[in-house]
Amino acid sequence: MLYKNKSSVIKSVSPFEMKGNCILDITSLNSKEHVSDSDLKKVKVDGKDEVSKMKTKQLQSMISIKDFEIIKKNFVDLKERDIVMRWVLRGLSLPLAMRKTLLSRRFQYKSVLDKDFNY
Q1: Less Cβ around it within 10 Å: N or C end of the chain?
Q2: 110: exposed, middle or buried (Cβ count in 10 Å: 0-12, 13-18, 19+)
Q3: Separation of alpha carbons 115 and 112, rounded Å
Q4: Which candidate, 52, 60, 67, places its Cα nearest to that of 19?
């Protein structure tokens, strides 16, 4: 699949239709030697894409058995496994998809811990 960006044509890293910025971000991250947490946080899917709508069984059937075993070994939470698989299907490398998912968890918990509790 080819997508046009303002000044160039880029090849998609995924067989799924995604917005141009997401494709550019994923392609850029995959090619970097060092990816910072802030780089990973910036990668977003604008709205819902095809992959967002997929259920667990469909996600599993579309990634390699080896990748799924690595995901299963590192993520107990089923929703987090789905998140990792979605990022892999969008074209993000497995190590980066796992890091991105862990970062999301960390920031989610941090926002809960930052709240004021009334006792």
Answers
A1: C
A2: exposed
A3: 6
A4: 52
φ and ψ at 58, to 5 degrees? Answer: -70, -40
**pLDDT tens digits along 37-63:** 999 988 888 778 889 999 999 999 999
Task: Give every CB contact of residue 47 below 8 A, 6+ residues apart in sequence.
Answer: none
Contact 74, 98 (CB under 8 A): yes
Domain spans of the chain? 2-113
pLDDT reported for residue 70 = 96
Give the pLDDT of residue 79. Answer: 94
